[in-house]
Write a structure and sequence with these properties.
Keywords: Acyltransferase, Repeat, Transferase. It is an enzyme of class 2 (transferase). Pfam families: Hexapep, Mac. It is a single chain. About 25% of the residues lie in helices and about 25% in strands. By secondary structure, the chain is an alpha/beta fold. It has one domain: Hexapeptide repeat proteins (UDP N-Acetylglucosamine Acyltransferase, domain 1, 3 Solenoid), CATH 2.160.10. Strands 1-4-7-12-15-17-18 form a 7-stranded mixed beta sheet, with no helix packed on it. The protein has a 5-stranded parallel beta sheet with strand order 2-5-8-13-16. Strands 3-6-11-14 form a 4-stranded parallel beta sheet, with no helix packed on it. Strand 17 and strand 18 form a beta hairpin. Helix 2 packs antiparallel against helix 3. The protein is globular and about 55 Å long.
């Protein structure tokens, strides 16, 4: 029989009130408190907390507090990734972020979701879908990235967009719902 954590990581319905998951979230909340309360000049302390909070991060991860996430361990982050102020990553399932990707302030990344059927939803069970963001992506301020979405490398997502479907590589996309506005030309891709 699978544990609730195993169900969660498999994208199946699971009980978020399970004690193991509650303990994991508490650990994360305590680390986030340390990170978010740290001063700008406490570089070594922030690095220590980030290494513990997001163990699957490449070199040069820069999170501008405040930052929030559910677990941290479900984030796989490339090198030199930047999160501006007040970003949220609900990493119930894996969130993969390619190297040199930039997030504007208030970006929300949601893998967590709930059943559409009201009877299932009332049971308290939930599930998640993974998110993949390629390399060299720029996600503008206040963008919402919904469960199960992939964003291709080198794409730019305009501020305030709600990304509900996959976005290919090398495009500028924006809107609610987010859609491709245009393909990036060679100079924009290779600059």
């Amino acid at each position: 029989m699978k544990t609730e954590k195993e169900k969660m990581l498999a994208g199946e319905l699971y009980d978020p009130l399970d004690q193991e998951l509650a303990d994991d979230r508490l650990r994360t909340r305590l680390l986030l408190k340390e990170l978010n309360d740290s001063r700008e000049d406490e570089v070594e302390e922030r690095a220590r907390v980030l290494k513990e909070l997001i163990p699957n991060a490449g070199e040069g991860l820069w999170l501008q507090p405040p930052f929030y996430c559910d677990y941290g361990y479900n984030m796989v982050v490339g090198e030199k990734v930047f999160f501006n102020f007040n970003c949220v990553v609900l990493d119930v399932m894996q969130v993969t972020i390619g190297s040199r990707t930039l997030f504007g302030p208030n970006v929300q990344v949601y893998t967590a979701t709930h059943p559409i059927n009201h009877v299932e939803r009332a049971s308290g069970l939930e599930f998640a879908k993974p998110i993949t963001i390629g390399e060299d992506v720029w996600v503008g301020g206040s963008v919402v990235i919904c469960p199960g979405v992939s964003i291709g490398s080198r794409s730019v997502i305009g501020a305030g967009s709600v990304v509900t479907k996959d976005i290919p590589a090398d495009v500028f996309a924006a809107g609610n719902p987010c859609k491709v506005i245009r393909h990036l030309d060679k100079d924009e891709r290779d600059a």
